Amino acid sequence: MRLQPDGAGALTEFPVTTMGVGRWRLPCGGFAWRALPYPVIRALVRRAQAHGPIVAYVHPWEFDTNQPAPTRLTARERITHRAGRARLWSTWRRLLTDSPGPLADHLAQAEHLPLWSLA
């Protein structure tokens, strides 16, 4: 989808790829990639890639395991916002290693950057 706001440059939207799992559609990234085991993620990504390039997403805070935990979360919010974050770097690293390219190099560099600072 391409948008042209008044007097501004064009904005192109790339919709996130979704993967079929039974009767559900899961997005490429986010909670699905934190909750599912890596072999399942890899199989779903390969199936999606058979139809062309994929668009995956992640929220920057999902990589920051040192981020202060929010208080007053419901049980659902604790699961969807906190679960699986400790292994997210390794999931992305493995996916990019399985499909090497320039993004794998950037991820290797980004892994060592501080992601959260109160300074």
Secondary-structure element pattern, one letter each: EEEEHHHHHH
How many extended strands?
A: 4
Main sheet: strand order:
1-2
Structural class based on helices, strands and sheet pairing: mainly alpha
Largest sheet geometry: 2 strands, antiparallel
Question: Cα distance, first to last residue?
Answer: 39 Å
Percent in helix? 40-55%
The gyration radius over C-alpha positions equals 16 Å
Low-confidence stretches: 115-119
**Average residue pLDDT:** 76
Strand content: 5-15%
Global shape: globular
Number of helices: 6
What does this structure look like?
The model is unreliable at 115-119 (pLDDT under 50). 42% of the residues lie in helices and 10% in strands. It is built from six helices and four strands; from the N terminus they run E-E-E-E-H-H-H-H-H-H. The chain has helices at residues 30-35, 38-49, 60-63, 75-82, 88-98, 102-110, and strands at 2-3, 11-12, 18-21, 24-27. It is globular and about 40 Å long. The chain has a two-stranded antiparallel sheet. A two-stranded antiparallel ribbon has the order 3-4. With 119 residues, the protein is mostly helical. A hairpin with a 2-residue loop joins strand 3 (18-21) and strand 4 (24-27).
